[in-house]
Structures are given as C-alpha cells and as structure tokens.
Amino acid sequence: MPVNLTRRSLLTRAALIGCCGAASPLLTPLSFAAAPWDGRLVVIILRGGMDGLDVVQPWGAPDYHALRAKLGGGPNNGAHDLDGFFSLHPGLAPLIPLWNRGDLGFVHAVATPYRNKRSHFDGQDLLEAGTPSLSGARDGWLNRMLQNAPGAEARTAFAIGQGEMKVLAGPAHVADWSPDATLKISPQAAHLAELVMQDDPAFHAALSEALMLSDGGVGDDATLPGAGGMGTMGNMQMSVPAKTRGKAHIKVASFAARQLRGDTRIASFSITGWDTHNRQQRALKGALTALSDTILTLQRELGADIWQKTAIVAMTEFGRTVRVNGTGGTDHGTGGAMVLAGGAIRGGRVLGDWPGLEESALYQRRDLMPTGDVRAPAAWIMRAMTGLGRQVLEGAVFPGLDMGHDPGITR
Q1: Would 128 be classed as within a structural domain?
Q2: What's the Cα-to-Cα distance from 142 to each of 131, 219, 255, 276, 408, rounded to whole Å?
Q3: pLDDT tens across 300-317, in order?
C-alpha cells in the first residue's frame, strides 16, 4: 500500500503507517470529544509583512496622499470609504457586505515586540511564539492556550497547510492536515483492509481518520468498494472523501470549515504573498483576493449558525514603510494592521490608537508608529471565546503582555 504523506502528524494521529496485514491499531485512537467551549477561532498568519497602510488606507490623514501618491489609494481611486477617514483596498471589496453587517473589522497601528532588524524569519517566529523575545521560546501561543484550557482534546485544534504552523507547536495535542497530503490505496488494498478490520473498530477508526485527512482517496475512485459507495466493516461504514480540486487557499478554508462544523474549535493556517517590494499595486491585489476568498469560503461553508460563533484573526509579522520605494513597492516596516472577521466579531470599526503620518510621528522616521501590541486583541478574543482569565492570558499564553482595557472586539 503506497503511502505519500507530507505531514508527520498525519502519521502519528491517523494511526496508519502503510500496513494492511496487522490486526490491531498501531497507535492510540483519537478522541473526538468537543472542547468545553462553543466558540470557534481561526488564526491566519499573513506571511511576508502585509502593508496595513495600503489595506486600510488612512486617506483622511493630511500627509497620506503625498506619501502614497504612487499607490493611488483612497475613495477617488476605487477604495471603499469605511468611515470618512479610512478606506478599504479594492482587493477586499467582496468583504464590504461583512463590514456593513458588522462582521468585519480592523485594528491599526499594531505590532509584535519585534523591532529594527526587519527579518521575516525572526518576525514570524516572534509573532507565532507570542513572547516578548525569541529567547527561550519553545512553543506557540495557541498551543499554550490549549495547555491552559481544561478539556481540550486531540481534535480541538487543527494546523492546516504545507508549512509548519509554529503558533500551534508545543506539547498540547494538535491535528495537522495539508492539501498535498495523499493516502493512495488501490481498490484491491482497500478491500483487503475491509476484511482485516471488520472485527477491529479501533483500527477501522484509524483508517477512517487517515482517509479523512488525506486529499487523495482510493486510487482514482472516491469510495471503498461496497454497495452505494460505502465500504461495510462489521456494523460500521467508512466513506472516503472525493479528491478536491482548485486553489490551495480555498481547499484549506473548506477543510477548516468542515472541521469547525464538528468538534474542532481552533484552526490555523497561513497565506503568503505579502512581501511587496516591487509593483505593490499588482502584487497586493492578488494576496488580498486570496484573503477575501478564504474568509468568504469560511462564511459560506461554516453555515449561519457556526459563523455567528466564529472569530477570524489575520495577523502579519510587521508592517511596511510609509514611503513608496523606487520600484513602486514598500520595504519592511514596523506598525501594521490586523483583520478581524466572523459573526462573533463586533465589527464595522477600525480600532487602534492612530499615531499620525507626520515625519516626527513615524517610527525611526520611516514606519507607522506602533501604538498597540498585536497580541492584545488576540488575547481579548480568546478570553471571550474560551473563558480563560486575564491572568492566564497575560502570564502563560502571552507572557509579558498587558492587555489594557477591553476594546469590546467581540459581541
């Protein structure tokens, strides 16, 4: 039975390691118990440094147009006026209905504690560690949240995608899935597995889990042999998901939604394409389209009831320079913006303490000055979704964080 798995956790959690001759499970079966809270949290890491000034454009600021003339922002250039001061990049125009119903919001002028070196690697590591520095950081903040949430089980959280999600790394059990993960089993091997496992419910459950997490299925078919496209194993039935097609970010969002409709409460994945050193007008539009598609896919496939319980937090490692460079792009900066969506979000607002764009107000006279810690809005959302106390969030989940006053991000 050829096995092609791109995520090591698929091996350890699906309990199937290319063997159809054994008669007992190789690893402990998964628990499908729900977490002790009902809210859903989706954390999206925007890798590359999203230019918050171009996504949520402060077109009402006196210095904005002179500094950003080459990028053509503001309502006169196709952006959507949000509140008379900020406008939304046209790449997120499909999300305007969410803004109008209060399911979309933003936080401006935020940053991690990372400063000055402007390295993607260090910036992303610190964002996902959620600590004041990288010294001694061994796990991610979402994993620490799970460690401090009694009742969290193996399928409470999913790390989704091809790259490592350090935000969920750590001792708490997390399930993984990649759109490239394939478990290819010929119809003959599948029939043999059916015979082997007909009296072994635990091994049957393990194979079902492996196939559910796989994007491949059985050969060129979508089901195990058996009447009505279902393989009968004793008194149990197992369906094999059909191979999905389309863009990776849509597949990721669709998989996340399917899990969140069940027992899963946390999903995290990343979207790349935010490093806009050159021709930013063109490059940023593509990344924003992917983000918009992702959020709308989650909304559609979660369904109205689960969407109302869901908070989506999109975060990036740092912002970009205020001034446009000679190639029509922007360079690595400091202060940036985060995107919030979902029925649990009290949106229709741009939150944050706006610092201004005068040169004297800029960080090192080149970047948007960060006036807020990007970890604080995430902490307030987690408190609302999970019930964790402020002491746990400031001490264990985000060490060294001062959450400040409650900004009322959630409903």
Answers
A1: yes
A2: 12, 36, 19, 28, 21
A3: 999 999 999 999 999 999
